[in-house]
Amino acid sequence: PFSSTGPLPTGTVRLDRENISCIGKTRGQERIHSLYLQQNQIEKMENLECFPNLRFLCLAGNRIQRVQNLQGLSQLSLLDLSHNLIQVLDTEELPRSLRILDLAGNQCTQQEGYRDGVLAALPQLLQLDSQPVQGSAAEEEEGGGSCSSEEEEEEEELLPVLRAPFTVDRGFLGDVRRELAGRARLRRTLSLEEHRARLQELRERRALLLGPGQG
């Protein structure tokens, strides 16, 4: 089982492919925001309330038969339950905060009215089973000025995933981190170029003021 008697060291915990059979109770995990438990032997979703600030949860490729025990995760934005053994989906068990949900590879996706039912239950959803959600409430709110800066930043973090759907093997947050890192590098490059341009402009003005040969 996966358990801990003390706080885990970082905000991201990676325990994929560790032959874990269950999620045990842990304490002091308020700092954890991302939990990777894909490709294990987990049969039940339990003790997730130990991670009250969890935003990203990957349980893909396990043996889970039922979606449950998620209501305490009020900040959960991304949930990957693809390739499990979920035959019937109870949408009441899904947190309303979800923006991205993946249930591909489960029998429940073959239920009549599956997609419409999920979309009706999750008005903030942006992507379901790697397919963008058109006309979602989140899209309608965009640009309306009603979102806080933190909410806008969170949505911006999720958008790269929409353009390049995550997969179990690649790690469903890898693309997000790479794109965010690329954006940061681009901002630094543009800032440096702007700084150099200003320096050059100052040098040229100084040369004009001082006249030739007085650098």
UniProtKB/TrEMBL annotation:
Its main location: other. Gene3D superfamilies: Ribonuclease Inhibitor. InterPro entries: Cilia_flagella_integrity, Leu-rich_rpt, LRR_dom_sf. It comes from the Eukaryota. Residues 132-158 are annotated as: Disordered. Residues 138-158 have a biased composition (Acidic residues). Keywords: Cell projection, Cilium, Leucine-rich repeat, Repeat. PANTHER family: LEUCINE-RICH REPEAT-CONTAINING PROTEIN 46 (PTHR45973:SF9), PROTEIN PHOSPHATASE 1 REGULATORY SUBUNIT SDS22-RELATED (PTHR45973). This is LRC46 protein. It comes from Molothrus ater.
